[in-house]
Each structure stands twice: as structure tokens, then as C-alpha cells.
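Predict structure. Chain length: 491.
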Amino acid sequence: MRIFQREPKLPLLPLRNLVLFPGAEAWIDVGRPASKRAVEAALAEGKRLFLATQQDPGVDRPGLADFYPMGLVAEVRRVSRVADGTLRILARGLERGRLLDLEEGEATLARYRPVPEPRVRDPEAVRALTERVREAFERYLAGHKSLRLDRDQQREVLAEPDPARLADRVAAIATWSPEEKAAILAEEALEPRLERVLALLLRDLERFELDRKIAARVKEQMDKNQREYYLREQMRAIQKELGGGEDHLTEVEELKERIQKKGFPKEVEEKALKELARYERLQPGSPEAGVVRTYLDWLLDLPWSERSEDVFDLERTREKLDADHYALEEVKERILEFLAAKKLGGEEGAKGPILCLVGPPGVGKTSLGRSIAESMQRRFVRVSLGGVRDEAEIRGHRRTYVGALPGKIIQGMKKAGTVNPVFLLDEVDKIGADWRGDPAAALLEVLDPEQNKAFQDHYLEVPYDLSQVFFIATANTTSTIPRPLLDRMEV
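Prediction complete.
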């Protein structure tokens, strides 16, 4: 053990989670036997203790290395005994002391070096720092509602003329961690002490501002929710008076729940919720309400993620084709080659040309498509395009028209109920064109693997993914099929 001849020594009182500053007072509960002996020794001689804060409050018998290096000489002002044997002392901080060594005995003694009050080396810098600390602390008190400091106490602290004393008083009041307060206590020079106090005040002020903004946003959202609830209840009451209001709002809530559970893509869900909000404001039974409700039903009835499990078993497909169709060996072989290429190509194979079955009426083109679907265990949908001359038959009518509906493609997808059916486009050679548009041009987007991931139906007004659909076309002749459309097909 090192021996110091000139440094004073005092009974040591270890502190847990508490840092006291010169001039500050605090009630301290003393329960450990060694700490009680230290208090009794202090009361016997001069009523002075050396307070040192433990770095780890969990250590029961701390050594020199377990304390923060800077401690405090304190005076015991009052002592009381609690029923469980604990001592309660009121201690007042007097001056800083740097802990040098411990001397074990009946009561542990702390040898320390007294730290004198700091001298002002740069008056202008100290004056500027002091004013900034004073201003920041005033804002800190205004933002920290949990501090129990009355107006007179606040004015007394803010009016403190001594910069060193101001820094200590601010640190004693602030709700900082023991580690942060110990760092302030350890600053012997005045300017670094003021700078550290100011940095912590500014940090907390930023946190207060962030908390205020978060609280304001939460309050705004709560106010919005309360306002919506109030308006919804008003609407419920009004509609109840008009008749049918309760049923309408219950229907809206059910639709909202279905939309949230449907698994829409983000863009589609936003559109559905927007239309639902519009539907909620409309009077039940009005023509516009019927149009919006029909649109929502179409969105909810369409498959968006439901799919059939693919079975690319060529042997099974051959057996199915042989069982359902006599002869047609060349056609069957060509179909199997086409399916094999799709299977081997994986995702890229799915982007290949569309299978087109060409032949006179009655030879089994449609039933071949159905057999392919059954062998792959996919749903089968057939759409006849014979005599179609209006582009809207493919893309759908805009909702501004009375009786508007989606086009044949979307209607077929609703009928299929999955996103990957076998979709038969029957009689593509009999598509016409006139002043209402060219349906063949609309089919180009449907059959193009690079475009049909986001097929746009005029009625839906949102993209619909057709990339997983297995399209098959049938025709009696290729001579009347438009050339761009024929280029996308494997005849």
C-alpha cells in the first residue's frame, strides 16, 4: 500500500447511483456495516466524510479501482435511524477531492488530494459559456416537466453569479446518469466543466424537441382518428334517420376487412381503399354507390395471389392427350415439344411464344386445350373472340360509361379464380376492326410476356399481372390473323 504523508484522510462512504456536488444536499440511506462505521467515525470527529461513487453499483465491497477518481468532501448535517436499522443522513457537499488511496481499518479511510476552486483564465470565454449554460438550462427547465423545482428555486439557480458554482448546481439538478455527472465532477478546469455541462444540456434539448414533434404527430393522428370517429357516428345517425344507414356502415366495415385480408399489391390496395372511402360517403341506393360497389366487388373477386400448383409431367400429358383424342399424332407431338421447351426454359421458357392450334372446325382444338389444362392441373378458361370488333371487348369499358364492365380477359380471370390458368383464346382469326378500335392490337399487350405483367384494363384502372397465364390460341386459318399477332404465336 502506498503511504501519503501530507494528504488528508476521511472516513469513506461509498455511493451507489448518486453523485453529489459541492454546495448540494442529499439524503443518503446507509445500510452496509462498513458504511455505518464510516458515518459513526465521522460523527465522532468533525462530522466530515469522503463520498466516492462506485462505477459498478453491484459491487458490495468496492476497492480503489471500483470508484470514480474524483470524490467529494461532505459534511453530515443530520442523522436518523430507520426501523430496519438503516441510517439516513443528510449530507452537504463541501469541496472536490481526488481519491488517492484507501486505508483499511474499523472504518475505511480515504486519502485524497483537495481540489481548489478553478481560476478564470479567459474571462471572455467563461462569460460567453456561462450565459449559454444559463440560457440552455432555462430552456431545459421549461422542457423537463418532471423536475420538482419551484419558481423561486429556478430564479435562484439562474441568478448564480459564480460560473463554477453554476455548473455544479445545474449538474446536481439535471437528470443525467451517474457516469455523466461523475465526468463533470472530475473536471478541475472551469472552461471544460462549463463546456461539458453545456453539451449535455444541448443534447437533452434536442431530445425534448424530438419528443415534442413525436407527441405532436401522435396527437394529430389521435385528433384525426377522433374526428373521423365523430363524423362516422354522425353519418351513422343521419343515415339511420334516412333509413338503411346501419346496414351501409356495417357493409363498409366488412369490405374494408376483406380488402385488408385480400393480399392486394400496394397500388391496388390504395385504389381499393380510396374507392371504399368514396363509397362510404355516398347515399345507399344512389346510382353512383352501385357503380362503386360493383367496382369493389370486381377487385375483390379477381385472383391476385391464388394459384394452382403446376404439374409439368410430360408422360401424364401424353396419356391425357391419347385418352381424349384419337390420332392427331403430329399435333400431340408438337404440343409435347412445346410444353417440354417451356419446362426446360423455366421462367425464360414462360416468356416464349403462344401456342396456336390451327385447323378446320370440329377437329378438337378446344378440347386439346382443355386436356392440356387437366394434365397440368390448372384451371381452364375459354373466351371466344369470333366477331369481336371493339377494343373495349378486350380492354374493358371506362367506368364513366353506363353499364361498364371489364374486358373478356379480366372476366375470364375472374371465372378462373387463379392467376395461372390455361386461357384459351378461341377463333383469333375472326377478330375484326372498325372505327371503335382494333382488338388485335389490344391482344398484342395481352400476349406479350414483357408487357402483360402490368396489363391495363380500362375498367379496373390498376395493373393486372397476366404473366403466369398459359395462353393457347385457336384459329381455322392463319391468313386472316394480323401479322404482328401471328409473330407472337407458335403455330
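Summary: Residues 190-242 form the longest helix (53 residues).
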